[in-house]
Structures are given as structure tokens and as C-alpha cells.
Amino acid sequence: MSTITHLEERIRSVQEQLALAARDAGRDPGSVTLIAVSKTFPREDVDAAYQLGIRHFGENRVQEARAKFESPLPSDATLHLIGHLQSNKAKQVPGLFHTVDSVDRLTIIEALDRALERAGSTLDVLLQVNIAGEAQKAGCAPEEAATLMRAITTSRTLRPRGLMTIAPIDAGSTVLRQVFRGLRELRDELQERFPETDLSELSMGMSNDFAEAIAEGATQVRIGRAIFGDR
Ligand SMILES: *Cc1c(COP(=O)(O)O)cnc(C)c1O
What we know:
Strand order of the largest sheet: 7-6-5-4-3-2-1-8
Bound molecules: pyridoxal-5'-phosphate
Order of helices and strands: HEHEHEEHEHEHEHEH
Shape: globular
Helix content: 25-40%
CATH architecture: Alpha-Beta Barrel
Number of domains: 1
Structural class: alpha/beta
CATH class: Alpha Beta
Largest sheet: 8 strands, parallel
Number of strands: 8
């Protein structure tokens, strides 16, 4: 990719828009974490973004992340897995990802629990929900969320932190707001059912729709193209 100056401009611009959206919603900009989605981009771009102050990175494929982060990130950085995880890849998660934000079915909860148990560690996770009910999209149905959340909370190694969703790609502002509000309301319901768990994280919003997501309470936005450029 481009020069570091270019990257800096993009990061500053996203940070400004993020702060603006937060203030518009009467929220503290510091309550929204910016995750830079570095999938398909090389490690040099990640390191340049780190130099510019980014501390959260998102990858959607285990194989790619393993190669890219063979030499680990500095210890104050967090690596998120935000893409579909196959059960047979779960054992590669410990020691590579700090959080899996795309947990969406029982088999992956069980596979991750086994892998973490074996590694003797724990893992933060988000439950991914297909709020819009789009066919072929990852994420559990809203009706399944309570059952899966129960499985996560009763596992010995997984710490549920909240929910994640992806909005329909071509939706207008009204539908986007409905989808993001739907995730927040589902989170509020689950928080009541699971009072011992802290479900404060809402990972929602990408390059095209993060302002709408922040207006509806996003605490994490996952931004790829607006930071690193087109893929
Ligand atoms: C690629 C990806 C993003 C970032 O999308 P952009 O449109 O590049 O901002 C966010 N979330 C998930 C799950 C992704 O796979």
C-alpha cells in the first residue's frame, strides 16, 4: 500500500468521524474502540498502523493471521478473530488471538473450550448474531442466542463479553439503524438473563456503516477499507 502519510490521514479521518458520531449520539468517543481490520494487507501495514496509535487489529482467517503474526504484536495490542472459524482450526487460536468475536454455534464453543483447556488459558469471546436474518450469513439466529450464551457462560475457559453482528451490505440508513438497535436490544435481554456476566461489548459497524452503529451503541467498530484502502 501507500505511504505512511496516506495511512496516517486515513486513520485520523476515521478517528474524527468516529468522535463526531459518538458526540452526535451524546456519547464519549473514548467509549468506542477502533479495530483496524488488516485482512489481505501485509504485516508492514499493521506495524505502520501500530506506530500511528492503533492497538486493536482484526483478521478473518486463521491461516493468514498465523503467517502475519508469526512474530507477535507488542503486548499492548489486541488481535481479534472476526471471521468464520472452523472447528478443526480452534486449536490454533490460543496464543494467536486474544478474542474471538465470531462465535456462532455450539460446535465451535465446544472446540474452543477444549483448545483453551488444553492450552491452560482463557479467551474473551463475542456471540455473533445474524440480526437481519440474511441467508448464507454467519451468526446464530436471535432465537438461539440465549442457549449459546448459556453454553459459553458454563464453559470453563470462555469469557463472554457481548455480541457482534454484520449488517446487510446494501441497506439504507433506516434498516441499518434497525439492525444495530436489534443487536443492542438482544444484548439488553441477555444481560438480564445472565446478570453475572458482563455483556457490555457491542461489535457492530464497518467502513460504510459505523456512524449508524455508534448511534445505536456500538462499543467496537471494525474498519478495514477506510483505513487500509480497497481490497
Ligand atoms: C472485512 C470485515 C470488516 C471490515 O470491512 P470494511 O468494509 O473493509 O470496513 C468488518 N467485519 C468483518 C466481520 C469483516 O470480515
